[in-house]
Fold each of these.
Amino acid sequence: MRIFLLILAIAWTSQTKAEQVIHKEKSLYRNIVVRESRNRRCLVFAVKRGDRNQTCISLNDPNRIVFPYARMTFAGLLLQPTPARILVIGLGGGTMPTVLSRLYPKSTIHVAEIDEAVVRVAKKYFSFSESEHVSVFVQDARVYVKRAGLKKMTYDLIILDAFTGDYIPEHLMTKEFLQEVKSIMSEQGVLVANTFSTSRLYDHESVTYGSVFGAFFNFKMPITSNRVIITNGRQLPESKLMQERANKLARRLKKYAVKIDDFPRHMKRTKDWNEKARPLTDQFSPANLLRDD
Amino acid sequence: MINPINSLVFCLAFTSGFIIMSIELLGGRILAPYFGSSIYVWGSIISVFMISLSMGYLLGGKLSTRNPGLLPYGCFFLLAAITLVPAIIYGDTAMDAVFLRIEDPRYGSLVASGLLFFLPVAILGMIAPYSVRLLVENAHHSGQVAGVLYFVSTLGSALGTLLTSFYLVLLFEVNQILLTMVLVLAISGLSAAICGKLLK
């Protein structure tokens, strides 16, 4: 028994030793930590109670997308397989823009990220880079989207991934914001939003998206508690068409560990939320309070 | 120290303290759709409130030297109520205009919060020094009176901050809360004016 405990202790210390902090900084918005273990490097937005990994990359296989929810985001391609103009809201470690720029080297990719420090860290530790086709705008997403609307810019694919889990930017959850997002979606445009699946917020958020876009795919997978909302604001495509597209895309996405051909069957059209919940608006948006309830 | 006028003044000073901070917190909500909710937006709001209040203190102190009474005191509340209404009705129009003209969200939020809140908050700022004057007329310990007044109005501010951010935003829309403030200010102003008439 003693030997067993000793082994356990050694295993424990070696494991904690294996994980080390390679970068730490306090930005205007949060504490940013980059941690590295034997084969993973993670961007962590540190909070006292339970750190949250924002992005992890696999050091052995840099192409591989580690988080299930990040893989799920690619389901947007089933509604829009050839996005020429892409907007990513929330950079994190830059996984989405990096992979999308490899998949679509000719597409224009814009990223709106509020925190300049996150951009720096993504470039230094997560091999994110800007290029002729990829540009980052250090701006509040609400301001970015409003200005884009004024300039009549449109996007074929918009990925909304601005929620860190600790604090929700409440002005990015309202009906008015989603209407502004809708106004910069091209005719074939698609919105993919990584959102909350637990707490009362799930109902409020679902109703809010429904009120702006009508029908949407409610995409959940058993391996993660995330919920991804996917919508084109029009008629959603038939499952058969999506499966065909998925089968075609599967080979290209394989090296990123995105099993897209498995996605269509998890993308539900049924409403499993309380439809009487109050939609979130600029006038009423206590998202952080609702989540804690 | 306990006489009807003093009680009324303390009560109204508490109310104005409550409302000032409640409006300030809601200001963050009102500006966020146009300028985001970053630290500089709060910087703009807080600066505008501080500037408005300081101007109000100056003007309120000045006015308290000429025939101080409950009637003009009540008028401050009524004026504050009236000047708060445009922020509710024309707030979006004003912010649209600012958003179009100023690219930088720092200056955009500064100008917008100035347009929306300068007048009502400056008028609310006039209440504090004027209250001191009204109280001192009825008591001789002016420093102590001012101390109690600050106590009451700052306590009101604390409660306004707490209740608004913890509960009011969860129950009501921003404009519903603001309209209630307008109503409360109007009632406060009328009651001061009426008491002024009755006690003359």
Amino acid sequence: MTTPEPKPVASTNAPEASETHRVLAVASAGGHWQQLMLLRPSFERHEVHFATTLQDLLDEYSAQPGSVVPDCNRDRKLDILRNLLAMRRLIRQVRPTVVISTGALPGVIALAIGRRYGAHTIWVDSVANAEEMSMSGKLARRFSDLWLSQWEEVASKSGAEYAGAVL
Amino acid sequence: MIFVTIGMQLPFPRLLTAMDRIAGQTDEPVVAQTGPHDGKFETLTGRVTLPPAEFDRTFAEARVVVSHAGIGTILSAKKMGKPLILFPRRLEFSEHRNDHQLSTARHLEAMPGIHVAWTEDDLERLIMRQDLCGASDEKSPSHATLINRIDSFLRDRPLRD
């Protein structure tokens, strides 16, 4: 007879206190990912785990360790569910103390779940949205500790913070 | 060589048709990453997709790049110092879900190396010019500010455990 597994209260395999955060950096393939890569210097001194929707990108940018999650957008509910389950699994595994995303919807999901697990969350809205916060950005607001737009006017209109842009 | 790219997600026949016509008026080869596209081209060389390495190589070899107003392409042009002609997708032709590419193009038109074609005529005129300046790879002060902001946010937050 085996003894039941201990409940993960004060987790038995918790790492020692550290100088660095565990950062989960998430972006969909394409422009979102390129912007995340341009922000790499801001979090690279921490322990980083990347997540995107296309394996090639992890290889091309040497974004390791990294995971691929299923892509999704708001028109396809089943994909959202798939992404949500994959993202929850990933977050339980990585246990990030910070989640950062440049979009799109998979990034919102990462922020929402990450925050439930106690992570600090950062949303950097894509520089593609020069006149209005993106749909994903609006959704991300309630899950973001730091909610940034890369356009001054969009920030002042939406109540986001503006702190520069990758361009 | 002129490289045309329309991104990975949505078709953009208006740009490809215009570029095919322009290709017929110049000796310069025109290579296009076309995405899903019905129909044939008279002159331009179309490829549905290009693997990343080949995409980068073609991008690097091009004299000028023509594309939709996608951020990915704009960042690539910056990285490679290429002159970029943007031809924004429009909602009125069902080329995107909204008109954000128009506003991106309006806001970026002042950037060195970014040239906006608002019409097919603009497109032809810009392509025929041999003096288009390239985009710049320099990290802007604004980029540095953003990196510092995120870095300081992380420093201010309690570390794990």
Amino acid sequence: MPQILSSVIKIQGLTKEYNNKIVVDNIDLEISESCFALLGPNGAGKTTTFLMLLGLVKPSKGTAFILGKEISKNLGEIRNKIGFLPENVEFYPNLTGRGFLELIIGLRNSREEKKEIAESFLNWSGLEKDYWNKKIITYSRGMRQRLGLAQAFAGNPKIAFLDEPLSNIDPLGREELINKIREKRKEGIIIIISSHIVLEIEQLADSIAIINKGKIRASNTIFTLAQSFGFKEYEINRVNYKTEISINDLYESLSSEKDLFLDKPKVLSEKLIFRTEVSEEINKIVMKYEDFNFTPISGTLSKIYKKIIKESNYEKRA
Amino acid sequence: MKKEHNIRSKLNYEKVLFSFHFKKRFISIRTLVCMILSITPTFYILINIQAFIDPNTAIDQNFLDGAIFWSGFIGQKTMVSFFRMIPVIIAVDIISGEFSNKTAMILYSTVPRNRVLLTKIIFLISYMLFFVLFSFISFGIVFLFKFNLIVSINFLITGFSLIFIDFTFILSLTVIFSALNRNTIISFLIPLLYINVEPIFVSLEMELLSYSYYKENIYYSLERILFIGKSIIIDGNIILSLIVFFSAPIIIFLITFYGFKQLDIRTN
């Protein structure tokens, strides 16, 4: 049996054809980062790729390996290690949020304390306690998304696949969900996200792949992509208040290293903006500080994304 | 890793899903409707009791077994299409329901689809068994009070088996449409249509397409054993009837398993 241990997910020539229309076209991809995002417009092939990885849709050609195991041969084993939040998640409408979560926990883990586990995940998801015992049919879109997120992480998966987790959520809710996903990433769960909302993804993902018309158009770490497209502006944001370390303390720590910045950084109350050519090096340092997040300056990924999508659309017409 | 594996019971998926369906379906309007349908044959006989009673014949064990139970309850044709709706009602949305409420994606990414399907079929057969038993028990109680007699055990077992296998066939027909078409309306209408057009097949000399035709062949053969005590006359027709009657539900279930395994599970 082939063992691919270097990457978490390895996709080889994955193709899906529906009624003679190719929706995923010979994808090759290696995912080894702790948070990976598959970006692309609606209908680009993101969901189909996810569903093939989860064994819900059979590939027309190609294969994929998850945690070193080939999905077509080891789906049962892989299934126990993954969580999944589908796009526009829905549930049994007459079940309560607690009931649904207990069902999923029961299916993933036969231990008796499923009530306690369900409560802890409901609490973590931020779903109002008053709604835990109410029928899901009464839930708003945002509440369902929270419950969906809770069930995706409820079996303590090694990998969580989140398909469009931020769609249909208001901006405040999005920020909260991003923080919750970030929390899980820090706990060591590998997060695989598909999205067309680029702005928020750049705060979350370590690496991305951009897909359009079924083909991967670009794939790399966000920092490498930003560099290759000539972007040098980055920012460090405070995203948590778990430690006493301030943005100034972090700035001083970074300043003690040689030649990190191209010019003098702008220090704002909760943000540090600067230009650099050694983003990977800075990222390694910032990773040690759990309250801070290092990304290309807001909007960079969006610019890269638009450029790549436009080019791939133009390619097709030409 | 091994410890984690040991904790997980081998039949955990089945146990959890079975109890989930049991809780979800048992206390429901569906159960009430099916309970009403399951007593319709008994009440039909009770209302039309004069048609079964010959004034010159004494009401004894033979009369209860033969005229009332075997001909009236097992072999009656008037209320049969209502009675046979029970498997359709209980199975109609067993798979398609999860596709229309979009829970399928979460369920099938968590549990292997063949184990979901197997659990659902076992649950449906148990659920159906409850209604068949309820129907027989209600018949037994009603006629115990009316004639102070209980149907003979050989008649009971034979009749029960006939009804149970017939219901399993209709159940399999409903499940295959629910699983492969994933449309609740289609999986309701097609088995219902089949139940109702079966007599037309016979009148059009297309009886080989009618499951009831095979059931009737077996019914009359069993009648010969039960009443006259003679063995079944083995001919091509009865062999074919036995094969189709017993194997059709199994074949349909196997096709359902195969087809469902090939399906792409997506709800949008």
Amino acid sequence: MQQAKTNPTPLMYERGTREDRIMKRVFLSPAVIILLSLSIFPLFWSLGISFTDILRGGSTTAREAAMTAEGPSGFLGMDFSVTLRNYERLLEDERLHSAARNTLYYVFIGVTVQYILGLALAVVLNQNFIGRNVVRVIFLMPMMTVPVVVGYTGRMMFDSYRSPLADFLRRFAEWANGLPLGLHINPTVPFLTDGSWARATIVAMDTWQWVPFVTLILLAGMQAIPDDIYEAARVDGANSWQMFWRITFPILLPLSVTVILIRGLEIFKIIDVIVVTTGGGPGSATESLTMYIYKTALTFGNYGYAAAISFVLLILVIIFATVFLTLARRAAPRGMY
Amino acid sequence: MRRSVWQTILLYALIAFWCFIVLFPYYWLGTTSFKKPLDALRFPKYIPYHDFQPTTEHWEYLLKVRWDVTWRHFRNSLIAASGSTFLAVLVGAMAGYGLSRFQYYWRALRWRNDNIAFWIISQRFLPPALFVVPFLIAYADLGLIDKHVGLIIAYTMFNIPFAVWIMRDFFDGLPVELEDSARVDGATRWGAFTRIVLPLSAPGVASVAIFSFVFSWNEYLYALMLTNFDAITMPVYIAGQNTQRGVEWWYISALAITAVLPVILVGLLLERFITRGLVAGALKG
């Protein structure tokens, strides 16, 4: 019999009284039932829908069938007569491909920037300084801010003409162009109106909000490293740079993998910041997959196709998690996981 | 470790710089909510009474003239967030307790406690967009669209995995002896759970509650999808300001502060539970 993983004391409930045999199920069932009915069942239902042409207000084929007095057929009102049409459309939908590219851009650039910045800030915060508790509290604020508000604030910060940032750039450009260097810096940056700038700006906003998360977790990891390891290294003549790369970084590696994975999976869900900053524009240059799914389902009312796209998102998420974990396992020293 | 003067200066400069980056947007929201439209729309004005004359008219508009509208959305957010938080904590604590104290074996899947726990936490990482279509259809059929209950159900589902994960971790650290002695004294298993275990794990409950509350308070996609008037929450209401009569930055700023302030205040008061929950979530994940 395999013991329950973590409980140090041997469980006395193994044999179990009658009450315990019942209570055991009572405790776990609500969560399992909720997840089965609201997560697993919808998942398979959605898979079914993705093979149909259900629109808002029912399936077109089903409606035609009803008119010829045959009545709707199939499971849950689904009619599978169009089967693979949605999946064929996935292949040639340019807008979907651009949404997928954008989402991957957000995930990869976002995770990289947030991890590097978060690690650097964790190193900084791990030092002793006055006001450390205040700074920790300040750090938490962006994480709890409504993303929609982050988006609006970001729009005020990144306006090309009227924002404090634009003001700063203008003053900087005036000063730099005035220097005898022959510079001609254009202070007007299309932060939200040019496709590639807008994508970067959205990553910047997400970074502003979530770097604290990365930092706090890595900081907790750093503080759990016993001091004597560093003492021993110092006796052997290691400098701080070497100590960071030879001790801190390797020890934090498993934690880093988790943090990066969590952030990556979270960024796959991005929608709210984009909706209020660019609305997916210019054109569809900043649209994410979640946003495209939402628009397909609600604005265009095409439920079948929206369901098919959501499986593209799921497959991307699974590939990301698998590839990343495989790479992390390969890169880590033997026996680490 | 000994630091040189320059290293100390660099350290404080970096910290100050990042604090500035974090805090400045809040400062900007705050000042914008007191700016007259012309001051907000032209060149940036930084310091009240120096660069611009502050006005409280937007706050009066928000809190007096349009109070019923503001309050309706605020209340909707409050109901959805607290309802789902309560359910997620209850169901999550129960499942966490079960997984920590009993041995399960699902014969069909050959799953034991760890497999079940992993399955539950993996639900958290499924993109919510996957369920958009089934939820839309089911909610329309069941008449749950634009109902508080509808949002509460959806958010409970999203919050449960994390709640189970954290609570299980917490219960694993609680000694079994306390419950045992209560049971010897004649308490039922359920009585021991509600009267002994839950009160002792108040810190764990607190961090689960904060995370669930903040998630539900901030959630946008499902609130947008499943509501259209009566049950609209703050984030959806704020996002909707985008199109009406152009963007009224001053009004949006005041609204944004109303939406953000309660969460941040609660968060700052309960800061240690947040850090604890984050770390527990990541270390075990």
